[in-house]
Amino acid sequence: MTATEAVAAKAVPDWRGGFGRLWTAAVVSRFGDSLRTAALPLLAASLTDDPLLIASVTACGFLPWLLFGLLGGAVADRVDQRRAMWAADLVRAALMAAFAVAVALGHAGIALLLVLAFALTTLQTLFDNAATALLPALVPTEALAAANARLMTGQQFAGGLLAAPLVPALLLAGDAVPYAADAVTYALAALLIASLRTGGPERPPRPAGSTLRKEMAEGLATLRRDRPLRWLCTATTLCNIGMGALIATLVVHVTDGLHAGNAGYAATITAYAVGGVAGGFLARRLAERTGRIRAVALAGTVQTGCLVLMGAVPVLAVSIAAMAVFGFMGTVWNVNQTTLMQERAPEGMLGRIAAAFRTLAVAGAPLGALLGGAAAAGWGPHTPALLAAALFALAVASLAPLIN
């Protein structure tokens, strides 16, 4: 093997062993999550016609990141990440099974939806930070970009192309079926992660007297000192405000504004997934040509145009096409953002830095969800997309210090 071939081989993650199991667990879990996330807004819309109340379900799903995100990252840097991940998935499996029973018995109300969204995301704060910190122990540094792209592409394929189109058919079989399926996928993912035999990343010993509070503060301070990550976090926060507004009201935009019904809603989120899968194949190559930050800025610029089209042209075909391109560029953004974080994090601090980044970035999503709901209620179902476009434009502008 030549030197060039050796480098190329290292740049591709090995499917055998740890990465293959982690990838399978992530894809299986995303399949179930997508069944739930596609069905839950429809259930909420069947329980109330108040757009603000429907948006509150989405907002409640983001709130735990504000309360527990930093704690989840500090814990992820302390404990066996594999054990944290499979334990969190087992609890989520139990919660989803109980919710499926409640739906089947007709006992699901808006209050229960709010509690469920809050509980699932609380567990996700630990799971996601542990997963981000574990990946560098499973693949070499040169392969991180490819590994992240494959993870996100697989999740988009399973979640959007396989799961989303099934939701209307599953709902015909019973309102509880998507949630029961999600419970099963959580249990399968837990088994796969528990079977991992690869050790976690190396960690330097903690200083004497170190506390979770001090370690959370270290994560925030390290993020603040790292100029590229700091500005990227600012841009991602603005985007997440826009995403909160869009996601929370997308079902209203499609079913009420476009009068496209459940089938139109399924087609729209499927188009988003198709674009996301395609973006996963090109995210790394685009970054190699432009650099990671420029690739992120390009993605945000194109996404802004897609949102303007959605809000200004209330036609189902336009929304479907716009969401496909939006999803494509979303994967480009996410792959390069995550890889840059993994590359720049000091040893033993990736969980805390990822937690600080996610907590600050996700902080805007509940606000965005409520703003989107208020905008839809006050000015019509198409205005949240325009609100999101303005926020994405600000996000791109905030990256200027890293480009110039």
Protein described:
The protein is mostly helical and 404 residues long. Helices cover 84% and strands 0% of the residues. Helix 5 packs antiparallel against helix 14, helix 10 runs antiparallel to helix 11 and helix 11 packs across helix 13. The longest helix has 31 residues. The chain is globular, with a radius of gyration of 20 Å. The N terminus is likely disordered.
Order of helices and strands: HHHHHHHHHHHHHHHHH
> What fraction, in percent, of the residue positions are helical?
over 70%
Output the structural class: mainly alpha
Strand content: under 5%
Return Rg in Å. 20 Å
SS field, number of helical segments: 17
Mean pLDDT rating: 83
Major β-sheet profile = none
The stretches of 5 or more residues where confidence is low (pLDDT under 50) are: 1-10
User: What shape does the CA trace take?
Assistant: globular
Distance between the termini: 40 Å
Give the tally of β-strands. 0
Entry keywords:
disordered N terminus; 404 residues
Task: Give a quick rundown of the structure.
It contains 17 helices and no strands. The chain is mostly helical. It is globular, with a radius of gyration of 20 Å.
List the helices and strands and how they pair.
Layout: H1 3-10, H2 18-47, H3 51-78, H4 81-104, H5 110-138, H6 144-163, H7 167-173, H8 177-194, H9 212-225, H10 227-257, H11 261-290, H12 292-312, H13 316-344, H14 350-362, H15 364-379, H16 383-398, H17 400-403
